[in-house]
Amino acid sequence: MKPSNLVAIKGLSHLLQLLTCILLLTPSFSKGDRKIYIVYMGKYPKDMEITDSFHTSMVQSVLPRKNGVVSVIPNRIYNVETSRSWDFLNFPENVPRTNLESDIIVGVLDTGIWTNSSSFSDEGFGPPPQKWKGTCNNFTCNNKVIGAKYFCIGGNFEPEDIISPTDTTGHGSHYTSIAAGNPVPNANLFGLGLGTARGGVPSACIAVYKVCWTSGCRTADILAAFDAAIADGVDIISISVGSAGHRK
Ligand SMILES: *[C@@H]1O[C@H](CO)[C@@H](O)[C@H](O)[C@H]1NC(C)=O
Ligand SMILES: *[C@@H]1O[C@H](CO)[C@@H](O)[C@H](O)[C@H]1NC(C)=O
């Protein structure tokens, strides 16, 4: 429950630089187990166009010799985490706001979202900002939740998973409401914690990238969602997951 667990990354240009790299998903076979690794090969060469045949020849050249490889990351599993309120961060409800805030699109990488919650009602919201290029896959969006995609490379679904951006645990809905949920007065749990639930930027739009499933959140899905979020045109990416190791 540390405030630092809500990571809002601003300055997408830095991210773009970081992610303008060649990502390869390389299957390796050991005793019949197929594992996914993320092979980082540095920045894209300038003006390079990625085609299927280029991808195939790149994979063929990397597999036997690992030439030109900067690092290889195993596809690990992370678990969802959560955060404290904005008041804890000295960011009160009556903080001065600007009109620009309604043009902000916050991309959230988590367990998905329940749009039936008042935090995500689109009452008073106009159509998505013109710059928006995202889509809603197997999901009904509204003018508050303007994008929704899901990522499960390798298809590790459990029976409890819903194969759409719909939330299954509530974690994604909870923590998306902390980032950009509408103000909801009289929120409480059986009278406890009575107050106004609200996001840091309540007038912002939300784009959901579901990367966390019953079995956890995998590196490859997180990276694919980062790529998609940047291409879709989000302004801020928020992710709140961690590995068992860092909690100890
Ligand atoms: C929204 O839908 C989910 C899943 O059906 C349900 O668990 C949740 O209680 C609903 N929330 C509201 C506010 O209706
Ligand atoms: C779409 O979502 C529903 C549940 O909301 C799921 O049962 C179905 O498999 C999904 N379809 C696709 C093509 O992913």
UniProtKB/TrEMBL annotation:
Residues 102-243 form the Peptidase S8/S53 domain. Its main location: secreted. One of its GO terms (biological process) is proteolysis. Keywords: Signal. Residues 1-30 form the signal peptide. It is found in: Secreted. GO terms for cellular component: extracellular region. It comes from the Eukaryota. One of its GO terms (molecular function) is serine-type endopeptidase activity. Belongs to the peptidase S8 family. This is Peptidase S8/S53 domain-containing protein.
